[in-house]
């Protein structure tokens, strides 16, 4: 038979051992959670910063587009109308033709203004959706005839969360503009597909290409920032290029059911 | 009697909260809901059996593998590592076979399934420690994380139980009164603590109304 004192001692030892074990587990849990939480919050802050940057860049891009449209297109049409009306002599036999031409130009001006207004009213890329936003960008670039840009997508109904849409759109814009500015490409193709929760975006051009290993310090900052941005949203990127062999930029982003960070 | 009433009240409150939490879309907590339903059913059965002087211990033999199934499912659904998931699923299968075999061939469904509960407690203690060490980071401080409270509850209860059942059988052989008194001293407070902590955990999942929405 256990004597009561022995029983009490036994119980005290057991309770003490168990308490020590439990306290150790709770402390370890708290420390692990605290460290993980700190890392999570700093990543979240960086993500927010990236998102903000992308939003500012999109806004700048929109304003540049607006300025270019006003200057190159609408401004020119308005000047032409002014010239026609200034040189209009109501008695001249060419007057009806000039008036007709001015009318046509005004009609064109109205169409262009409507198109511009539409493109600005949908400046919220997120509202437009990634597919339509890229299609719009492709259409705009094709209009300038710098290169023939094509867009290939597996799933036209692709819907991404707002933040991924904004960042992805900004990456497409940056890569396309890099290709037009530096590669002298005549053809650019964009491929977008989603398989097993991984979004793959590939932008391929037939331009002059470059040797990625021979980029001088300070050069290629746009590409560097792009790659950094992809890393921040838990994605990966590759650049395949060689002199006179074109360039292919590939991005891979995880698009789980939940976005990387919930807001 | 008062302690038993509090015990039933706590299980009922926890069950009610788990229904609310699952209805709000936290599907992962459905295993906690089923666990609470099973617990309440077994305790009612045991209460009625005790009152009518009928044998009710067999219910605990059936309850033990079911309880492990639901707690393991709760941990499994929060785990992302495939190997760990497979290990947990395998442990459920293994424990169920072990527990049922022991109940059939050793206990014959008579007497408290001490060994079953002892092994189950050690397994759940390990699972909950794993879950606690792998809590995902969120915006919330740790004391507002439901899994933290629920796992601490299981740790306290099953940790206490595994220590208790380690000494229960030898103690029972030497002194039945001491064993029963130890059971009463340890098991009931641990039970009350477990369901109180489950309630706290479930409350963490119920969104608080902010002042703006009250206006």
SSE arrangement:
The complex is a heterodimer of chains A (263) and B (215).
Chain A: H1 4-86, H2 95-121, H3 125-128, H4 130-144, E1 148-153, H5 162-183, E2 187-195, E3 198-205, H6 221-232, E4 236-241, E5 247-254
Parallel strand pairs in A: 1-2
Antiparallel strand pairs in A: 2-3, 3-5, 4-5
Helix pairs in contact in A: 1-2, 1-5, 4-5, 5-6
Chain B: H1 2-23, H2 30-51, H3 58-76, H4 82-107, H5 114-133, H6 146-174, H7 176-205, H8 211-214
Helix pairs in contact in B: 1-2, 1-7, 2-3, 3-4, 3-5, 4-5, 5-6, 6-7
Description:
The complex is a heterodimer of chains A (263) and B (215). By secondary structure, chain A is of the alpha+beta class. Helix content of chain A is 62%, strand content 14%. Chain A has a domain at 128-263: Histidine kinase-like ATPase, C-terminal domain (Heat Shock Protein 90, 2-Layer Sandwich), CATH 3.30.565. Chain A has a 5-stranded mixed sheet with strand order 1-2-3-5-4, with helices on one face. Chain A starts with a helix and ends in a 9-residue tail after the last strand. Chain B is mainly alpha-helical and 215 residues long. Chain B has one domain (2-205). Residues 211-215 of chain B have low confidence and may be disordered. Classes of the chains: A alpha+beta (263), B mainly alpha (215). The interface between A and B is medium-sized, with 23 and 23 residues.
């Amino acid at each position: 038979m256990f004597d009561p004192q022995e029983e009490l001692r036994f119980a005290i030892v057991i309770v003490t051992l168990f308490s020590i074990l439990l306290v150790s587990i709770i402390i370890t849990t708290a420390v692990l959670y605290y460290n993980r939480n700190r890392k999570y919050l700093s990543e979240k802050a960086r993500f927010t910063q990236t998102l903000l940057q992308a939003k500012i860049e999109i806004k700048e891009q929109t304003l540049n587009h607006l300025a270019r449209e006003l200057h190159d297109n609408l401004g020119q049409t308005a000047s032409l109308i002014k010239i026609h009306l200034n040189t209009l002599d109501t008695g001249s036999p060419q007057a009806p033709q000039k008036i007709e031409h001015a009318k046509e130009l005004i009609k064109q001006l109205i169409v262009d203004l409507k198109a511009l207004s539409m493109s600005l009213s949908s400046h919220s890329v997120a509202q437009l959706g990634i597919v339509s936003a890229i299609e719009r960008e492709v259409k705009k670039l094709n209009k300038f005839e710098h290169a023939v840009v094509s867009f290939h997508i597996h799933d036209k109904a692709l819907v991404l969360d707002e933040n991924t849409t904004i960042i992805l759109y900004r990456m497409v814009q940056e890569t396309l503009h890099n290709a037009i500015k530096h590669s002298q490409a005549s053809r650019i193709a964009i491929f977008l597909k989603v398989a097993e929760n991984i979004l793959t975006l590939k932008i391929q051009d037939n331009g002059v290409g470059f040797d990625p290993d021979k980029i001088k310090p300070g050069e290629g900052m746009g590409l560097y920032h792009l790659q950094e941005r992809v890393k921040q949203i838990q994605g990966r990127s590759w650049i395949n290029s060689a002199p006179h062999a074109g360039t292919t930029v590939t991005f891979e982003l995880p698009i789980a059911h939940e976005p990387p960070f919930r807001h | 009697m008062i302690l038993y009433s509090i015990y039933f009240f706590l299980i009922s409150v926890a069950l009610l909260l788990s229904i609310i939490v699952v209805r709000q879309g936290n599907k992962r907590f459905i295993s906690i809901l089923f666990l609470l339903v099973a617990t309440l059913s077994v305790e009612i059965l045991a209460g009625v059996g005790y009152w009518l002087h009928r044998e009710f211990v067999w219910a605990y033999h059936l309850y033990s593998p079911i309880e492990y199934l639901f707690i393991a499912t709760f941990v499994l659904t929060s785990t992302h590592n495939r190997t760990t998931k497979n290990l947990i699923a395998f442990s459920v299968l293994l424990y169920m076979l072990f527990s049922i075999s022991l109940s059939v061939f050793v206990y014959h469904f008579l007497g408290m399934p001490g060994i079953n509960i002892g092994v189950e407690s050690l397994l759940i203690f390990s699972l909950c420690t794993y879950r606690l060490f792998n809590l995902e980071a969120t915006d919330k401080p740790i004391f507002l994380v439901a899994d933290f409270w629920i796992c601490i509850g299981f740790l306290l209860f099953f940790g206490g139980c595994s220590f208790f059942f380690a000494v229960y059988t030898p103690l029972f052989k030497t002194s039945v009164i001491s064993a029963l008194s130890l059971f009463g001293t340890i098991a009931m407070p641990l039970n009350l603590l477990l369901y109180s902590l489950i309630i706290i955990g479930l409350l963490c999942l119920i969104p608080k109304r902010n002042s703006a929405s009250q206006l």
